[in-house]
Amino acid sequence: MAVMEARVLGFQFIRELYQHDEDFKHYLYDQDGRRHSPYTLQEGFLFKGNKLCIPKGPIQKLLVKKEHRGGLAGHFGINKTIDMLKEHFFWSKMDGDIYDVIFMCSICQKAKSQFHQGLYTPFPIPNGPWEDVSMDFIVSLPRTQRGKDAIMVKSIMQLMWPIFTSRKLSNFMAYLGALC
Ligand SMILES: [Zn+2]
């Protein structure tokens, strides 16, 4: 089954690369003398247990990139990418290679820098209560029996107490209009 998968994935060419790979070339021959070896050769594909051995070269990097980018919810973190790759593949120093690829991923770097730019920065502390008040509206709520459909949240910055007031949105709008 694993051999079949390797074929479907278009990995036939890796069979020729094993013989040039320092880690794997020793396992290609002398299979009989290595009864206790965790490596097996099946139709030219080398397996460690049920994991396909990937020889050194661009294919390793390609696999890491593919797995890291994933589908729509891609750009997985290091641990998740390691777990996913190790489920099917093996080569030595996999963790380091995965780390390198993710570290160099331009999309992850960009996302990281945007995240840092957007970090929460504390508000300046006002000198007294009611000096700095912020307001938020939660609107389009299901209408209550009394016809209220919105909540105004006032935060008094020095106390950091939110005050929730429920009203009809139209009332809040009238109130805001009066303030302006
Ligand atoms: Zn990424």
Overview of this protein structure:
- There is one protein chain.
- This protein is α+β, with helices and mostly antiparallel strands.
- It folds into two domains: 116 residues, Orthogonal Bundle (Endonuclease III, domain 1), CATH 1.10.340; 47 residues, no CATH class.
- The chain has eight helices and seven strands.
- The strands form two sheets. The chain has a four-stranded mixed β-sheet. The chain has a three-stranded antiparallel β-sheet with strand order 5-6-7.
- The termini are far apart.
- The relative contact order is 0.08.
- Zinc ion (ZN) binds next to α7.
What does the secondary structure layout of this molecule look like, with pairings?
Elements: H1 2-8, H2 14-17, H3 25-28, E1 39-42, E2 45-48, E3 51-53, H4 58-69, H5 78-88, E4 89-90, H6 94-104, H7 106-117, E5 133-138, E6 150-156, E7 161-167, H8 169-179
Parallel strand pairs: 3-4
Antiparallel strand pairs: 1-2, 2-3, 5-6, 6-7
